[in-house]
TrEMBL record, chain A:
CDD domains: DPM_DPG-synthase_like
Name the record gives this protein: Glycosyltransferase family 2 protein
Domain Glycosyltransferase 2-like: 9-167
Record Pfam families: Glycos_transf_2
Annotated transmembrane regions: none
InterPro entries: Glyco_trans_2-like (IPR001173), Glycosyltransferase_2 (IPR050256), Nucleotide-diphossugar_trans (IPR029044)
Annotated family: Belongs to the glycosyltransferase 2 family.
Superkingdom classification of source: Bacteria
Signal peptide: none
UniProtKB/TrEMBL annotation, chain B:
The protein's name: DUF2304 domain-containing protein
InterPro entries recorded: DUF2304
Keyword Transmembrane helix (UniProt): yes
Stretches that traverse the bilayer: 6-25, 37-63, 69-86
Keywords annotated in UniProt: Membrane, Transmembrane, Transmembrane helix
Organism whose genome encodes this protein: Angustibacter luteus
Length: 224, 122
């Protein structure tokens, strides 16, 4: 696979020291431009990411994943050669091959945004509780945007430059995923979903979203 | 329903909605809050000097005891405090975000220009 110089992979990074090195190396095999936005990690995440070859941008304070994503996108926009941005989680649950397919679909001008969805095929196996939380988020997101997405809170997305220029994530914490789809819906960008495989390791499971965090997301969205 | 119940419920819902959604933060808003605080101090002082006063006012508006009236008013005041503090906190967070992002991006410098990079590698 030829390297894709016009793509920036944005990785929001917060305390993922044990895995971030491998995640970055996996990405760099295909994508030469990887920026890790270290969101005030208290461990050596940023150093690991840099040692693995990623560019790092460091928040002096922990702001949240939404803020980190926006910082990464703003950074990527400063590269005039950038045509596509991929957002990719730092905990190793996404597959680089999925990201490659998503960028290819943008390149084929099939859409302006490709969202990863873990519910389009049966490869991903979330637990019952996790499925419930995610599905609730999907229902809310679809109700407010008028879209028909199957997975609203998937960290793997591919956006083209036009979309990146128009979005402005203001939800610092986890509610940014719904906010992002709302903003893209407003700009009229063409959206498609891509089945992706989320690898639930013990590591990622221990860090995942809890049911109670769903309450926080909803509150953040209601009282912006 | 007692008059006081209607009045307090409307005040709470309207006040909360106003503070959370409608009101822009400006000097008028700040002045109103300060006047409210002043009224609260005056009322509190009066209640201390003349303990019978709260009961009398309570009687006018249909609450049995003066202590109940105080409790209700404190409840409203507390909710207003929570609402304004929350708003202020969100603004501060917004400013902090913008500041932190600016700092992070300035520190990182511009992204490497790919052509230049290639020539270095070759």
């Amino acid at each position: 696979m030829a390297a894709v110089h016009d793509t920036w992979v944005v990785v929001p990074l917060f305390n993922e020291e044990p895995v971030i090195g491998d995640v970055v190396r996996g990405l760099l095999d295909v994508f030469p431009n990887v920026v890790c936005v270290d969101d005030g990690s208290s461990d050596q995440s940023a150093r690991e990411a840099e040692a693995a070859g990623a560019t790092t941008v460091r928040h002096a304070l922990n702001l949240g994943q939404g803020a980190a994503l926006q910082t990464g996108i703003t950074y990527a926009l400063a590269d005039p050669a950038m045509e596509y941005v991929v957002t990719f989680d730092a905990d190793g649950q996404h597959q680089v091959s999925d990201a490659v397919h998503m960028v290819q679909r943008l390149r084929d001008d099939e859409a302006d945004v490709v969202f990863g969805s873990r519910f389009l095929d049966s490869r991903t196996r979330p637990g019952v509780l996790k499925r419930l939380v995610l599905k609730t988020a999907v229902v809310y997101s679809n109700a407010t945007t008028g879209l028909h997405l199957t997975d609203a809170h998937n960290g793997l997305r591919a956006l083209d430059r036009k979309v990146c220029e128009q979005i402005d994530i203001r939800q610092n914490r986890m509610a940014h995923a719904s906010e992002l789809t709302q903003q893209i819906a407003k700009t009229g960008g063409r959206m498609v979903e891509q089945p992706v495989h989320i690898l639930y390791t013990d590591y990622s499971r221990a860090k995942g979203q809890s049911l109670l965090n769903g309450v926080n997301i909803l509150t953040d969205l209601l009282f912006k | 329903m007692l008059i006081i119940q209607v009045v307090l419920i409307i005040a709470m819902v309207a006040g909360g909605a106003y503070l959370l959604v409608v009101s822009p933060v400006n000097s008028r808003h700040l002045a109103l809050r300060r006047l409210g605080l002043l009224a609260f101090v005056v009322f509190g002082t009066a209640a201390i000097i003349a303990p019978g006063l709260t009961s009398e006012i309570a009687g006018w508006v249909g609450v049995g005891r003066g202590t109940d009236l105080l409790l209700y008013l404190l409840f409203v005041a507390f909710l207003a405090f929570v609402a304004t503090t929350g708003r202020r906190q969100r603004q501060l967070e917004r400013q902090l975000t913008v500041l932190t992002r600016r700092l992070a991006l300035d520190e990182a410098g511009p992204p490497p220009q790919r052509q230049a990079d290639d020539s270095v590698r070759r």
